[in-house]
Amino acid sequence: MSAPSREEIEQQVQEDLMRLDAYRNQLSQMIQQHQMLAASRADHLRAREALHGLEAARDDADVLLPLGGEAYIHGRPDRSGPVFLGIGAGYVAELDRPRAAERLAERTKQIETAARDLEAQILQVEERMTILRRRVESLDARSAGEPAQGDVGRH
Predict the structure, then answer these.
(1) Euclidean distance between the first and the last CA atom of the chain, given in angstroms as a whole number
(2) pTM attached to this predicted model
(3) Fewest CB within a 10 Å sphere: which of 12, 24, 135, 150?
(4) pLDDT tens per residue across span 105-150
(5) How many helices and strands in the chain, by DSSP H and E?
(6) CATH fit for domain 6-142, picks 3.40.640.10, 1.10.8.80, 1.10.287.370, 1.10.1740.10
(7) Three-state secondary-structure class, residue 125
């Protein structure tokens, strides 16, 4: 079996570089997804902490209620009132406080599981990229006439 020609090696390098670029794009998207999951997890944890904090607040406590757009008003917590929890697509569900706290905890666990799964996928893509980089370097060295790592019998 004859050694591949310089043109064949260069073609393989170009194909591998395109794959490497596709992996970079995939990795970038996965990192963005992970950042979104981390932000969502932090948001859920803050909501749980705020709910627990309101339970411990005095009856005459004055709290800042967010309106959105970094605007707030003063208000007093109603410990007996329901919690309105977003369920998606702009809809909210009215839940009693214990159920709302439980639901927030469930969501936090789901987010953490999704983040761990995504981290494992990120590691797999990074491993593929490392293997591909080494292969490109080896092919590049071969096309330049240098012995590639692992080549036996060349001097």
Answers:
(1) 19
(2) 0.76
(3) 150
(4) 999 999 999 999 999 999 999 999 999 999 988 888 877 765 545 4
(5) 2, 4
(6) 1.10.287.370
(7) helix
